[in-house]
Write a structure and sequence with these properties.
By secondary structure, the protein is an all-alpha fold. The chain has 5 helices and no strands. Helix content is 76%, strand content 0%.
């Protein structure tokens, strides 16, 4: 079983990934390829693209904070998994021509989701044990 010292870096890596994706890729300065994918969404007016990117970016930042908090780790893992699958399915459906290596994206996401669930499982095990009080 992993110790807290082994799982904290993993949780920090997951949170950092969400922070990078949210702040750097969506909000400031924002990546042109991600903007282009959102612009390719059907029925989304051009005037809503920036607002949607900022909203997604803030949600990703919030996910990173949630992971670091350790609260409801299993629910956090479910939400993260759904968002990774949803975001990337949308990107592949509506912007595959803007994704340089779609296969690499899928493989990286499988590894990221595995790390997300490793953090959630480790957190659950650490908090499931009774606290030993010593005199």
């Amino acid at each position: 079983m992993l110790t807290p010292w082994q799982t904290r870096p993993a949780a920090a890596a997951v949170a950092l990934m969400w922070g990078y994706e949210g702040l750097w890729c969506k909000i400031y300065p924002g990546r042109a390829d991600q903007r282009a994918i959102v612009e390719g969404l059907p029925l989304l007016p051009e005037s809503a693209v920036s607002a949607l990117l900022i909203t997604i970016g803030l949600a990703e930042l919030a996910l990173g904070i949630w992971v670091l908090s350790g609260r409801r780790a299993r629910l956090a893992a479910v939400v993260q998994t759904l968002l990774v699958v949803g975001f990337n399915t949308g990107g592949l459906l509506f912007g595959a021509d803007r994704i340089p290596e779609p296969g690499r994206l899928v493989v990286q996401d499988i590894a990221f989701v595995a790390l997300i669930w490793t953090v959630a499982a480790a957190h659950r095990h650490h908090h499931a044990r009774p606290i030993a009080l010593t005199a």
